Amino acid sequence: MARISPQEIMKRQEKADARKESWRTIYEECYEFALPQRNMYSGEYEGKTAGQNKMARVFDATAINSTQRFANRIQSALFPPYREWCTLEPGNEIPKERSAEVREALEVYNTRMFDVIRQTNFDLAMSEFLLDLCVGTAVMLIQPGDEEVPVRFIPVPQYLVALEEGPHGTVDNVYRKLRLRGEAIQRQWPDAKIPAQLQERIEKKPDEEIDLIEATVFNVDEDTYCYHLIHAKDKNAASELVYRTMDISPWIVSRFMKVPGEVYGRGPLVTALPDVKTLNKVKELVLKNASLAVSGVYTAADDGVLNPQTIQITPGAIIPVARNGGAQGESLRPLRAATDFNTSQLVINDLVMNIKKMLYDDSLPPDNMSARSATEIVQRMKELSQNLGSAYGRLITEAMTPIVRRVLVVMDQMNVIDLPLKVNGLQVKVVPTSPLAQAQNMEDLDSVLQFAQIAQAFGQAGQMAINQEEMLTYVAEKMGVPQKLLTSPEQKEQMMMEMQQMMMAQQQQQAALPAEPPV
Hints:
The protein is built from 15 helices and twelve strands. The protein is an alpha+beta fold.
């Protein structure tokens, strides 16, 4: 596969944008009513609504709060801040006799990886990443940094990104619209080759924003990813500023739920959108009804005395009229209001409960309780795991594992680690250790511990049925006990030899003692 020209990149980006346009209506409504501050569909990228109020049509904040809570719950359950939410373990290709040795070495790499992550903006980026995931599609760019921040996590609003899917439902190609000040291009991409015409333009107006296209395209023949940065002012005269080849894609693209044949995902907000719009409309009607109840509507007789154009209905106002009764009726009469809207409260309560349930904001018991027990926390995690269903596995496959793989590659490029690790599930695999994963591990341990208790009731026969050494190793792995706290096979063998020597010494001492005289 030959190197793709900038003109071809722009053509493919335009086609990908055109295919994405069919998602505009549904995504725009999700952002308008649940994530209005991140809504770029209203023209923010074009500079039309920067700094303006984006909540003019929002009358209810239930979806906004529940969406924020969805992101917080997923982050605390899968990517808890300032904690090690996964561990690197030997894959199936590692021989069993070397498993403990390799596991101990991988723990060092795992600790170093999370030390690097804590120096970055990962926790902030993941929060924005999960907000977009609630809509359906979340995108993040992971790039090398500098000595102070070795890895940079850049959450990209999906409005700016167009995707192309490869085989097996994976995202191969990513196109991003980017607008940057001219003076910042060389700083962000030191290897950028800026044409003379563009350089002259930057020197004249360094603060002027330049339209760019950041494209990552998979090269099938070489099994690599080609990274392009293109100046996109004119399609026919497009110029390539940066070209790089990478072993893995720098993009992390995760879909909450994916329908076959569709590239973009559908999140819980898409499911809850009808109720969100209905609740918003009901609240709007309630407010209008309240306004009518407060100020009222009146009919006025144009009798030459009362001027309907100058009437002001305010407390203490005196309105001059021709009559307040009589055969022709009063000059000013309140218009009969519509039917009372009290039944709307029942509709509102049902809609609020449905929205919270669909956005996983229905935790039980209530969160206002104090001193939560460990059992309650485990039960919450079990409930969240059951509600997430297949989305949990997709988050591990499309978010957690690619993030770890990309971070290790960047660390290798920045010379933070000595040996590159191949995270492919065969040599090294990523195992979640977050609270949600631990809750699932505890379910596995429950059956093992129950079997151990049942085996004890059978006495010696039950003890013989259990390989206690392997069972303890299994329990330690499920509970995430560090390998350095466990004895290695060599240490176990040394301890067995020492115990045998002690027993032989005791036997020799007993044999050397004089026999007791018979009584």
